[in-house]
Amino acid sequence: MSKISVIIFFILTGFSLFGQRHSEARVWNEQVLEAIRNDFARPTVHARNLWHTSVAMYDIWSVVNESGSTYLLGQTFDDVLYELPELNLTLTEEEKIAYTEEAIAYAMYDIILERFRFAPKSNDIISDVMSTMSTLGYDPEIPTRSIVTDQSAAAFGRYVAIQVLAFGSRDESNEQFDYGNLFYRPINDATLVTSIGNPDLQDPNRWQPLAFDEFIDQSGNPFLGNIPQFLGAEWGKVRSFALSEEDKNIYTRDGFEYTVYHDPGAPPYLSESGDDISSEEYKYGFSMVGIWSSMLDPDDGVLWDISPASIGNTGEISGGYEAYQEFYNLYGGGDPSQGHNINPITGQPYETQIVPRGDYTRVLAEFWADGPDSETPPGHWFSIMHEVMDHPMFEYRWEGQYLVDNLEYEVKAFFTLAGAMHDAAVSAWGIKGYYDYIRPISVIRYMASKGQSSDESLSNYDPHGLPIIDGYIEIITDNDPLAIDRDELVGKMKIRSWRGPDFIEDETTEKAGVGWIPAENWWPYQRPTFVSPPFAGYVSGHSTFSRAAADILTMMTGDAFFPGGMGRFPIEKNEFLVFENGPSVDFELQWATYRDASDQTSLSRIWGGIHPPQDDLLGRLIGVEIAIDVFEKASQVFGEFPTSTYEQELITDAYQVYPSPISNTQRLSIKAYDNEAEPVKVELYDMNARRVRSELIRPSITQLDIEGLAPGLYLLHIISGQTRQVNEIIIVE
């Protein structure tokens, strides 16, 4: 079948090339994510891009449907009125959908091309969006016309794009100068990541730039210059969505006013004497990063059950030194997970999944870094939301109650999640910019250069040295294997951790493993051309983004659990990791609830050597507050529910399915009683909500291959447009 024939087939049968049941808003949200993957990895910038494109889609939908209120059009911000054009439209419900989707297409096309025109892979982005326009049947070459005289969907969409871009030019992001800082300057000189130690660090409490032979960001883009600058140090000033004046503080440093929302207070600092509570907390936190780095070896014999039966359901969290000590398992790794006894959807216990701890921890560090496709953390949570919407048990019920059509649900979901991601960036980076806190690679190497801080009677004592922790951080002695042929290391500090990129010649076949190395040579578990994000650590952006996103998804869906009681991502043996070989086994990342996924994100940054615990828990708490405020404000914008009605009709007698029970050596027959029935999609799910078969068929009569499936109860979904038939199938040996 030709490509054109495939497109026609999908359109005629009610399925989109871009996913079953979804509107064109989803298509364009995917296009934004793809553009992000082809741009530099800038979480703040892309949270803003997702927010502004979501505003455009929502306002278009709201105006055409005359439902709720707009966010931007017809509103005044900073004494600027973003005029709402008068549309004199007389449209049926179907025509409204078509008009809305066409307007969204032209708005998104123009915004994406403008926002990503300087992306390193801008040609790919242009090609992608032009191809999408063509596939959807729109002409991207239509010139801009006045909406007042034209009234066309294309003119309206392009008008909205102009307004959104104008709004962005006034939000203090400094987009005009590529989002650069106007006043911020680092207090510490840069250190070369390939050098030994960090003895010349001026201030161990402030962020330090890193110098590379070649810096390549997490999207794989080479960086011009070898010292990346602090990204978004002044981002706290950017216009937010729902952050309030009550949560706002303004602090002056070096003549610049830093705006800080949800101020958590100062992080623990290392004092000159190094013997106070703050210094103790500082050393505890950064030492934990070093200790957890010893848990990155799949050959250490430690096996974990990483299923929701054992991981997740951590309970409430709080900040502070005592909370850190209670929450994290310093020597064993992980958090106080209680797990979940029962999958609330299936009513069955979660199946255990035993894997080497070192595989699990390495995969977490890589998976959650920027998302598996480098869409940055805000975009990663959009990808997760898309997966949720793709699940066969997902319903377009806002707050789990109001069933609305897919277009309305999607524009409101994108608007709400994007508002949370944008506000999380404004809050977290406002804190990062003002407190300007240091990263583990700088601290561990600095403290190692100083010596040890546990025994004043020894000659290598220094109050800024590493604490001695038996089995993890020790002194190199005369008979230490590290000192063989290297007498200069005697008396220096060693750390048992991931050994770093120097132990990997071929990343496709080798792994560095864990062992004793000079602490001055310590590496985070990251690729050597990246090592650590180019901005301060406190508070963790990942923790803030993820907890805000998890709570937004919970509020939007009305359920803390993923559809089917399980979210999952398959990991293939020796294929997933990028800068070393692994993992050593196949497995799945699994999460019962959205918060479980969020918690996993946060822990991944400690195992990855990016954040100490003081960066983590406070970021999570801020994310909780942001989600509450964003959802409340979005609800005010949306107004009353429901504004549209949508039902996917459940049918029981359109198709005959036989036999059942059926042997797993037979083929399942599906026959339509209407011999003229159009092609439909059939999906077979096991009782853990895993899709085990999926086909497009012409069901006048057909057979589905079930060979090799395990005995048990399955659900067969037959989907056509707005109808769905569900049959129970019992498979036996």
Overall description:
This protein is an alpha+beta fold and 733 residues long. It folds into four domains: 3-170, Vanadium-containing Chloroperoxidase, domain 1 (Up-down Bundle); 177-440 and 532-638, Orthogonal Bundle (Vanadium-containing Chloroperoxidase, domain 2), CATH 1.10.606; 447-519, no CATH class; 649-732, Immunoglobulin-like (Sandwich), CATH 2.60.40. 35% of the residues lie in helices and 15% in strands. Strands 16, 18, 20, 21, 23 and 24 form a six-stranded mixed β-sheet that branches.
Concise synopsis of the structure shown:
The protein has 733 residues and is an alpha+beta fold. The chain is 35% helix and 15% strand.
List keywords for this structure.
single chain; alpha+beta; Vanadium-containing Chloroperoxidase, domain 1; Vanadium-containing Chloroperoxidase, domain 2; globular; disordered N terminus
Task: Spell out the blueprint of helices and strands.
Blueprint: H1 3-12, H2 24-37, H3 43-65, E1 75-77, E2 80-82, H4 93-115, H5 122-136, H6 147-150, H7 153-168, E3 191-192, E4 210-211, E5 248-253, E6 256-261, H8 277-292, E7 303-305, H9 321-327, E8 354-356, H10 357-370, H11 376-390, E9 397-398, E10 402-403, H12 406-435, H13 440-450, E11 473-475, E12 493-498, E13 514-518, H14 541-557, E14 567-571, E15 587-591, H15 594-607, H16 613-638, E16 649-651, E17 655-658, E18 662-663, E19 667-672, E20 680-686, E21 691-697, E22 702-705, E23 712-720, E24 723-732
Parallel strand pairs: 3-4, 16-24, 18-24
Antiparallel strand pairs: 1-2, 5-6, 7-8, 9-10, 11-12, 12-13, 14-15, 17-19, 19-22, 20-21, 20-23, 23-24
Helix pairs in contact: 2-3, 2-4, 2-5, 2-11, 2-12, 3-4, 3-7, 3-11, 3-12, 4-5, 4-7, 10-15, 11-14, 12-14, 12-16, 14-15, 14-16
